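Help needed: design a sequence for this.
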């Protein structure tokens, strides 16, 4: 039997004379014979195509009229309604590394303290545009992918950020960068082809970034160029947010069109910790942000914390009153990383002083804070 060019389907092109005679007795018309042979050939091709050649996976992810998967649409809508239920609490890289451990999806420093998981987790994608295997924080993109899919199945909120590595007016270069981004977002899917919905912050504003010198109009134009490029590449599992790092002076408030979240990043390092200044700054900025969010049909998120926790009552007496006074979507703490002696932590971990663990436990038990066990149906239609 001769093997044809249709994968595993073999076509017998050397039929015996007896078979040919029998075939001709039923179909004496040679043109009819050719038609039937062509029909058999086309049927084989169609069968092969319907099987996807063994490469594709059947997807149960429906895409709505606005170009987003239904779960992504639901996430966008639910973020607005969930604000009234409390503030989701999480941590940057909180489900992929902590003090003394790394790349263990079953662990979390927050879980070790509360027996509950963070409702929010965040990741940087800087470096993905160049085909790098690790991001700028030395975490492997393949590990981030696994972590994202796992947390999507756990119903957690997934935040991501990406910054363009350099200034360019070359649309072809931007197209190449966003092509790598689009491929990565497409890869965030499970065995059923269902993609994890994520929030993407493009070019988070900070003074030391090259785009920190852009005017409001130029920044918004660049933001739109990137989002349009991703939409053109059929990215269906991403909604967009605007993020700004507090520079100690004033909010810029660039707020591009089409954003679902306005995020403020306010992290104090251990060397520059000032608890009184921290609370005074939040009391001043959060009302401004909630007002801006209302004007932009968005919600407010806060990425924050004081490294090393110099105040043993930081969570319950410093941060929690700010959350009670302002309707935020989430608060995401800075990352824990390194060994037990490094001191790079923003939330308590096993082995830290009991007073800080007790303080975070009080924060956890407050009705206003929402952790993963309280977060239901984030990706479902209500």
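Sure. Designed sequence:
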């Amino acid at each position: 039997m001769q093997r044809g060019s249709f994968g595993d389907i073999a076509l017998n092109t050397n039929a015996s004379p007896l078979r040919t005679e029998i075939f001709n007795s039923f179909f004496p018309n040679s043109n009819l014979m050719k038609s039937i042979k062509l029909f058999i050939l086309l049927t084989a091709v169609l069968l092969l195509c319907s099987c996807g050649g063994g490469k594709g996976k059947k997807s149960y992810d429906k895409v709505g009229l606005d170009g987003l998967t239904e779960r992504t649409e639901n996430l966008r809508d639910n973020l607005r309604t969930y604000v009234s239920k409390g503030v989701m609490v999480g941590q940057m890289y909180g489900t992929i590394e902590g003090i003394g451990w790394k790349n263990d999806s079953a662990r979390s420093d927050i879980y070790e303290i509360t027996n509950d998981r963070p409702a929010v987790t965040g990741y940087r994608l800087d470096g993905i545009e160049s085909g790098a295997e690790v991001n700028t924080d030395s975490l492997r993109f393949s590990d981030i992918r696994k972590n994202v899919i796992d947390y999507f199945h756990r119903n957690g909120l997934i935040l991501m950020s990406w910054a363009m590595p350099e200034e360019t007016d070359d649309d072809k270069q931007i197209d190449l960068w966003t092509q790598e981004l689009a491929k990565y977002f497409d890869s965030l899917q499970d065995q059923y082809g269902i993609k994890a919905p994520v929030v993407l912050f493009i070019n988070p504003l900070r003074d030391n970034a090259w785009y920190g010198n852009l005017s409001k109009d130029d920044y918004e134009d660049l933001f739109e160029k990137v989002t349009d490029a991703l939409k053109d590449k059929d990215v269906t599992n991403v909604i967009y947010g605007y993020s700004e790092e507090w520079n100690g002076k004033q909010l810029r408030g660039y707020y591009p069109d089409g954003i679902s979240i306005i995020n403020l990043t306010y992290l104090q390092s251990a060397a520059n910790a000032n608890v009184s200044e921290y609370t005074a700054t939040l009391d001043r900025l959060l009302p401004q942000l909630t007002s801006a969010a209302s004007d932009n049909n968005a919600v407010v998120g806060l990425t924050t914390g004081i490294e090393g926790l110099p105040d043993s009552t930081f969570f319950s007496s410093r941060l929690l009153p700010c959350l009670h006074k302002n309707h935020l979507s989430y608060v995401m703490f800075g990352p824990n990383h390194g060994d037990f002696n490094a001191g790079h932590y923003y939330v308590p971990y096993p082995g830290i002083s009991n007073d800080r663990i007790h303080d975070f436990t009080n924060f956890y038990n407050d009705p206003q804070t929402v952790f993963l066990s309280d977060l239901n149906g984030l990706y479902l239609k209500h």
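Residues 214 and 220 are 9 Å apart (CA to CA).
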